[in-house]
Amino acid sequence: MAVYTRVPTETLRDFLTRFDAGELRSAKGIAEGVENSNYLVDTTTGRFILTLYEKRVSAEDLPFFMALLDHLAARDQPVPPAIADRAGREIHELAGRPACLIRFLPGVSVTRPTPAQARSAGAALGRMHAALGDFDRVRPNSMGLESWRPLLDRCGGDLDRIAPDLFARIDTALAQVTAAWPAGLPRSAIHADLFPDNVLMLGDEVTGLIDFYFACTDLRALDLAIMHGAWAFDDAGRTLERDVSHALMAGYAEAFGLRDDERAALPVLARGACIRFFLTRAWDWLNTPADAMVTRKDPLAYLRRLEIYERLGEEAFA
Ligand SMILES: Nc1ncnc2c1ncn2[C@@H]1O[C@H](COP(=O)(O)OP(=O)(O)O)[C@@H](O)[C@H]1O
Ligand SMILES: N[C@@H](CCOP(=O)(O)O)C(=O)O
């Protein structure tokens, strides 16, 4: 589930009076997602998503995210901008949390993408990168390379409760990735978490790119590496689905293009991305109470991906 903060009906009804968004008909908590509280809100004029921002989203970052969404929406990208109230405000406070009322997008996220879906999603990332060419706001990547060592140290020896020698394994992998991290690649605003659950689709067509709350400024090719790790493997990270991998890469390259130096860097960027998602999942695994109403994601699924990338190198992206 992902409803951490309950919003009483009366509070929501009052909140909606700030907008030209009709009157409340129904509101339901949305089970998917792990970071924020989300409600599906139906009013007399339409359907909206109400998001209350929780632990990992800082209120100071919301103007960056909203400017990014407005920029992309103005360039016809399938993203959900926040709805402005009558005073022009997009960012609010509700039930003690920062909150936004967001445009609802149709579509569903896929759990096992087909090659055709991966091609469309890769192309959607490419078009998004093209549209971000003139976006000049900057947000440092709070989940970037510099954050991984401190997070690994915070997990510390507790990692070995998940699997034997896990701390040493990740320590070595991180040292190798840090030493090989590329310099001089193009930087851009990136989504940084474009997993299948953050892409809405109807059939093979992308209808929505959502959940921009890790968006930041970093190496543009890191976005593709993150997406590759999330899309081109089975969920447990045991098998690289080569046809899905090939389609994702082709879709991106056709829509935007991939420089030789970006392609050459993908193996190390993908290993870095595995460490990033391993660490946040491991932290949550170790620190989420067993009875919490949220599904913990398996960190070892990212250790397995890391091992496949280490073994295959460039061949993983063929
Ligand atoms: N703009 C939107 N349009 C339609 N559905 C949405 C929208 N935003 C979120 N959702 C739904 O809410 C779920 C959780 O949203 P998400 O932003 O991924 O949450 P979290 O940040 O907690 O991971 C999504 O899987 C999707 O079903
Ligand atoms: N994609 C991350 C977790 C972030 O969750 P999201 O629901 O906000 O995408 C992971 O799988 O570890």
UniProtKB/TrEMBL annotation:
Q: Which SUPFAM superfamilies match?
A: Protein kinase-like (PK-like) (SSF56112)
Indicate the enzyme's highest-level EC class. transferase
Q: State the organism's lineage.
A: Bacteria, Pseudomonadati, Pseudomonadota, Alphaproteobacteria, Sphingomonadales
Keyword Zinc-finger on entry: no
Which residues belong to any copy of the Aminoglycoside phosphotransferase domain? 27-253
This protein's gene is called thrB
Q: In which pathway does it act?
A: Amino-acid biosynthesis; L-threonine biosynthesis; L-threonine from L-aspartate: step 4/5
Which E.C. number(s) belong to this protein?
A: 2.7.1.39
GO molecular function, a single term: homoserine kinase activity
Originating species: Stakelama saccharophila
**Recorded catalytic activity of this chain's protein:** L-homoserine + ATP = O-phospho-L-homoserine + ADP + H(+)
Q: Which UniProt keywords apply?
A: Amino-acid biosynthesis, ATP-binding, Kinase, Nucleotide-binding, Threonine biosynthesis, Transferase
NCBIfam families reported in the protein's UniProt record:
PRK05231.1, thrB_alt
Q: What is this protein called?
A: Homoserine kinase
Q: Which InterPro entries match?
A: Aminoglycoside_PTrfase, Homoserine_kinase_II, Kinase-like_dom_sf, Pseudomonas-type_ThrB
Signal peptide, first to last residue: none
